[in-house]
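Hi support team,

I submitted a single chain yesterday and got back a structure, but I'm not sure I'm reading the token output correctly. Could someone confirm the output below corresponds to the sequence I sent? I've pasted both exactly as they appear in my results page.

Thanks,
R.
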Amino acid sequence: MNPGAVLPTALLAWVLLVGARPGPWTIERDASTIVMSVNAFGLTSMGHFEDWGGDIAFDPDSPELSRATVIVQAASLRVRPAFATARATGPGFLDAARHPTIRFQLRALEPSGGERYSARADVTIKGTTRPVAFPVDLRTTGDRAQMTGGFTVDRAAFGIGTSGLWNNFVARQVTVRVSLQARRD
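Hi R., thanks for writing in. Yes, this is the structure output for that exact sequence:
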């Protein structure tokens, strides 16, 4: 299973959701999810991160000024089936002991029409930074915001699970889906 690709994806999705007017926003964690999926051994394995947070500034009138930084604790990844969690966060994949955080840095948020945006960001996993781009839906109503989106990353681009027997049984493409809710402080 490829948890390394999930971390960058989770970061990206989370950052985009929280936006709406510059200023502090609080993520409603109980109403938000960041999930990843990867094909492993012919089955789809799912995972989610339990420990993440960040700073976000978004103004729907000036989305090009949006900025966000999200930090995910790599060891907080939980994978189904549960026995895969230790392998996913271990040295062969995310290596959470040596690389405890995954960083997502939003660089641009461009309107695509209506409530759709195109997000561009840098994701750092295991000391490797790669650019990512993906579509998001972002709805703001008063002091509330909801963002949904997803993208696919190549785990090998971050050096995740690229050697050993496991590499042959885990797909390189990891899909991350995010649904986030936030409120303006």
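A quick pointer for reading it: The radius of gyration is 16 Å. Let us know if anything else looks off.

Best,
Support desk
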